[in-house]
Amino acid sequence: MTAVAQPLPAARRPKRMTPARWGLYAFIFITALYFLLPLYVMVVTSLKPMAEIRQGNLLALPVAPSIDAWVKAWTSACTGLTCQGIKIGFLNSLRILVPSVVISILVGSLTGYALSLWRVRGANILFGTMMVVAFIPYQVFIYPLVRVFSFTGLGQSLSTIVIIHTIFGLPTMTLLFRNYFASLPVELFKAARVDGAGFYQIYALIMMPMAIPMIVVAVILQTTGIWNDFILGLVFAGRDNLPMTVQLNNIVNSTQGERAYNVDMAATLLTALLPLAVYFGSGRWFVRGIAAGAVKG
Amino acid sequence: MQKSNVDIRSLQIGFGGLKVLENLDLHVGASEFLVLLGPSGCGKSTLLNAIAGLIDVRGGEIHVGGRDVTWAEPKDRGIAMVFQSYALYPRMSVRRNMSFGLTVAGTPRDEIERRVGEAAQMLRLTSLLDRRPSELSGGQRQRVAIGRALVRHAGVYLFDEPLSNLDAQLRAELRVEIKRLHARLGATMIYVTHDQIEALTLADRIAVMQGGVIQQLDTPKKIYREPVNRFVASFVGSPAMNFIPGQLARGSEVAFIAGVNRVSLNGYAFRSQPTDAPAVLGIRPEHIELTASNDPSAVSARVEMVEPMGADTLIWCRLADSTAFSFRHDADAQVRVGDTLNVRFPAEALSLFDETSGQRL
Q: Does A117 touch chain B (CB under 8 A)?
């Protein structure tokens, strides 16, 4: 008899759930829980009346949920001497945010565009150094800047804080756009020159429309950065223009009598609302832009 | 459409301490198709960019259509340019890409419409006018780039390796299209390439460049048949020209001696009186002929490799002194590796070069 050669068994398809996979999911789940728990406590607490909070069941759902604390935080919580809620701070923050974001992106993209055409040897090292310099703590600059602005007569004002945000945003914005524009083929610029477009026409009509993903990233970076700023707003905005973060601090830290935890929580959530919305609304763009910038930089 | 000539006088270009072009003179006639051919780094693209005004020159003059444009802006030179990477504006439709230059220049709208329509029809782009560049294939993109140049109605069209990014088949198609375009428009065209086939097929005249110097400026036929030096001889032609080192000998007739082989040079057009000096014989693979063994001019060689190329067959041989050469034969050649063949080098098809200078003798 001749032995019939058995075909070799085909390699088995890997099982979907290995122990390592289980471990991975467990880790992700626990990490998510770890970060979501404080948020849960804040939301729950903000919806409870003080009587319920006093009972001390931190994790319990509210028995009689109400949005009174939110209304109070928005309209009538005391931020120091005035008691008009955090809405003043929200409006101030918006008034600081919009011009700061627009101007810093305009100036940053224009300088980035100009620098992208400046292809000297060692440019990448030079710009890398610029990026490192951008991480010098702001505190170092504060006193000299205060002197400079009081000397120029601008003092503390809306313009001052907008200028400050623009200046501090410039290194990041410039490098973000420079790295993007430098990654584009030089021939594009040459073609536009042959077509007769000037420096600013090429910037506005060709470069900026191409840079839309970068603009989205820049808006996200600047919006979250400027909205979350505390110290610059406190020092440079002036008393009438204090941003929301400063107002929030005033609400939370200047309480007479019993601490209104629910109002504090509601005010905090209100302050975090805008960056939170930006993150949720644009996470995909954010990651894409940062990754593109990192690879091409 | 006006057709400008281009006149370049003792042009000098350098970057830092590096001299790319030095005292380069070149005249391109109106309606001429001139190809700048050379390996990368030979200065051909630099020259083209200088004509376009995209690189500053150190010295010399550039005249387009009789006008000194050495320091003029690119848009004021009466030129249009097509780039290797297409360089289309990605956020604009094909139509906007083609009309951008005219819009910037403030051309009336109906005139823009007319020119774009005309160029689109010429390049078979009419159905693609509303697409974005990202929705086009490579060949279509390059046609748009050519269309963008055409609508400028320029006196000179500059092409910077326009076909290098395309695959072989598309390259051949677009090459024909460019040639047809030149025949139809009769426009002056300066075309940079490192592909000698493109140069030979397209050009009225070819300027072969190396090291920033034009080595030879002549018709494709002359360049191919009578290269002025070994560089031009080896750069142009595929499969490449064979080079056989040896010695010139004057006796009853001038001959070339390579080892035991003797090649008669009766009929070779010497540029100067030949001397008994070491020399290099160059011959193109298609000029080598098979012959009978009793032919007095026969050279015997052993077959080392046979490459069938479809239309013909390339046969690699080795002489007795181990110099290798290749020659073309009919596709139905009954030749096998190891055979010994008798071949003849016809004197009128040869090129002889000085051994040291590499110049044609």
A: no
CB neighbourhood size of A16 (10 A) = 6
pLDDT digits (tens, 9 = 90+) for B140-199: 999 999 999 999 999 999 999 999 988 989 999 999 999 999 999 999 999 999 999 999
User: Closest approach of chain B CAs to the CA of A175, in angstroms?
Assistant: 22
Say whether residue A78 is in contact with chain B using an 8 A CB cutoff. Answer: no
Q: Where would I find the beta strands (DSSP E) of A49-189? A: none
Shortest Cα–Cα distance, A191 to chain B (Å): 6
> In chain A, what's the furthest Cα-to-Cα distance?
107
ipTM: 0.86
Query: What one-letter code names the amino acid at A190?
Result: K
The whole domain housing A279 covers: 89-296
CB contact under 8 A, B81 and A197: no
Residue B341's nearest CA partner among B280, B313, B308, B299 is: B299
At B198-257, the pLDDT tens digits run: 999 999 999 999 999 999 999 999 999 999 999 999 999 888 999 999 999 888 888 898
Distance from first CA to last CA of chain A, Å, rounded?
70
Report d(CA B9, CA B4) in Å as an integer: 16
CATH number at residue B140: 3.40.50.300
Q: B22 is in which domain, residue-wise?
A: 6-235
